[in-house]
């Protein structure tokens, strides 16, 4: 296994300053708003707000320590220095090796360091299909923060690299939230114009994919469409995140400016969750109906979802492949479906949901599981290889962050990766939304168009804009 020279990663790890200062404060009555306020304070070039399971929120910021993986090289930064090592086409392996060196250097003395990052969808091409289709942009990026704040119901814990960072964040947390101008909100009419943009071209892409499926080229593909947003007025990511979070019921949520991407998202499912004890799970969601304010109509659509042959087939094949991918990295006999085909509301839609769990093999770690399960089957198709080839033919350009993952982990072996769907994304001067639908032999273009509109309504009505 080629992981890059060990002394390269050891040298980088020794240059990383641990979070050696800590304080415990009163719990926040509104952790989403408090964490967002910290993000708006521009404490560093990069930040992440991450909502994890069980109502725990994290804020992390910094700029000095990072890892960035391209297809053929991983670059590490710390203390004003840069280290680079080749990956031999296996960036996930090299990425894991660098984090492993960080664990060996710091864990015994200061506890396991935490990291926050993202994986671009194009990593999938390198892992499962055509390596050349991965492109030359970064595929993985992680930040080791200079400060991390954990919000729970019981307390707020601040950890920082030094006293100056600790006091800076404590002072911000102690401030009363100052009244701010209310950002311009999206009108219903404007939101619907965004939601329905480009539907004709998308319908054509769905029709071509159905032809591929009926020709036996693949079983299912999750075909998506990109919805560009105008450059002016500029979207306010933080305000959009807060407005959207108030109206959504995500499995995870995140607000970030990290490694070149900006994002505000309300993820309906996780790609994987790995605990330090080796328990791993994945949560495939496939099969969709709208979810609104009328309980009776929601119940009707729920019943329709549970009895629709196309939706049931789409879900079943997704669970089948998720099971196979889990079995590839888990101990024999430990993979089980703890939940199968329940219905979960996620903002403006409701999905068929299952959960597959297992125990990692002794020689497998969280990044082995990540490489097996990424990208989520519910964002690609069946088989992954054939679906990726179909998406390259029928979608409008690379996805970037969409369909990838935003993650939080520790070098002790934990990894929590949210699937990037229902997300506002920014890259340079561009800002956009994207939504997809699972296409099978039973699909119709009109229904898949409708499904993407239903999903876009989880974000588009909550867009907020900066005030000039």
Describe the fold and architecture.
This protein is of the alpha+beta class and about 475 residues long. Helix content is about 35%, strand content about 30%. The protein has 13 helices and 25 strands. The chain has helices at about 5-15, 30-40, 90-110, 125-130, 165-175, 190-195, 200-215, 235-245, 295-305, 310-325, 365-375, 385-395, 445-455; strands at about 20-25, 45-50, 55-60, 65-70, 75-80, 80-85, 115-120, 140-145, 145-150, 155-160, 185, 220-230, 250-260, 260-265, 270-275, 280, 285-290, 335-345, 350-360, 380, 405-410, 415-420, 425, 430-440, 465. Strands 4, 5, 6, 7, 8, 15, 16, 17, 18, 19, 21 and 22 form a twelve-stranded antiparallel β-sheet that branches. An eleven-stranded antiparallel β-sheet has the order 1-10-9-3-2-13-14-23-24-12-20, sandwiched between helices. Strand 15 and strand 16 form a beta hairpin. Helix 1 (about 5-15) packs across helix 3, helix 2 (about 30-40) packs antiparallel against helix 8 and helix 7 (about 200-215) crosses helix 13. The longest helix is centred in the N-terminal third of the chain and has 20 residues, at about 90-110. It is globular, with a radius of gyration of 22 Å.
